[in-house]
Amino acid sequence: MRIVVGGVGLVTALGVGVAENLTAIRQGRSGIAAEPALLKTLHHLPVGELAMSNEALQTRLGLPEAATLSRTALLGMLAVQEALADARVPEGLRKGLVSATSVGGMDLTEHFFAEFLVNDRAGRLREVRMHDCAASTEAIARYNDIRGYRTTISTACSSAANAILAGERLIRHGVVDCCVVGGTDALSAFTLNGFKSLMILDAEPCRPFDESRQGLNLGEGAGYLVLMRAEDAAKCYCRVAGVANSNDAFHQTASSEEGEGAFLAMSEALRRAGVAPEAVDYINVHGTGTGNNDRSEGQALRRLFGAKMPPFSSTKGFTGHTLAAAGGVEAVLSAVAVHEGFIYPNLRFTTPIAGLELIPETTFRTDVEVRCVLSNSFGFGGNCSSVVFTKEEK
Length: 394
Prior knowledge:
- The chain is α/β, with parallel strands linked by helices.
- It has one domain: Peroxisomal Thiolase, Chain A, domain 1.
- The protein is about 35% helix and about 20% strand.
- Strands 1, 2, 5, 6, 7, 9, 10, 11, 12, 13 and 14 form an 11-stranded mixed sheet that branches.
- A hairpin with a 4-residue loop joins strand 13 and strand 14.
- Helix 7 packs across helix 12.
């Protein structure tokens, strides 16, 4: 069975829709601002924030003002709406949804507790109902009329990549005929404070894979793909050739120095795809900009590819790190890279990491044939996932 990407949808700080995002990337325009404009916080830190309020998102979705929906759900609704419209799924197919999130409805929970902590009889309980991660999945499914199998994945930054893995299996085993997979996460004070406490946020725009990197910038967004059997697809971006998940069981938040989990995920995904390392044309690396992640991932890349390093880049310099949505956002970009023949630039790179000497792409390229893309998503707890997208043979 050949499973392909039949449609894609994307929302990031760069804008709403795949076209807006690609235009910004072509122009080298980052979505990372000096500090949040909508999120209420005492911290003055760069973030990738979509310049649309919840009210504006609801209006765009045609939802009533009285609707109580988390920002995570709203971002996901928009991206899934675009992906399904793009895919033009034939009538009669059983549609499923595997959606990933870490933040869930935290923005509404924060709003609730601001009043509740002052007066335990105050606060709108309907806001707390959106707190659970699965609440956003169900809201997205209802809005987009997805009535088949639905589930939620939360494995930190590898979540959306694991959603792709799960969706591919659901189709392969006949549970659904097509599956919308990806992830959504919104900025919240909880995550901003949490990552600041880990001391891995950069006070400047992030510099993935650069010797001078000082940390990541948080972002928000949603990225979803419609997976289908090749014979059912009206449109085909690429084939989902191989997906793999591993765990280096090293630390609660850090990756192992030798990149064991990353190495296992990449090598197993390529093995399942039947693709040799030298056949990879481009790697969308996890590339967060933290000292630990980039060196660990770099070590794994060197172990797997040796001196013959394919072109690679991190697109987080454009979007910020969208947490559970990252694997979906970057999978969408990877699928488009195969379909259109794109290689994306790694913003703000000047100096390679000492001892690794890895030099990412720094310009938007359309001058190469892209038949195979490897997309990496590595999360806390050593949960590492890689997806291989290949050109579908006609």
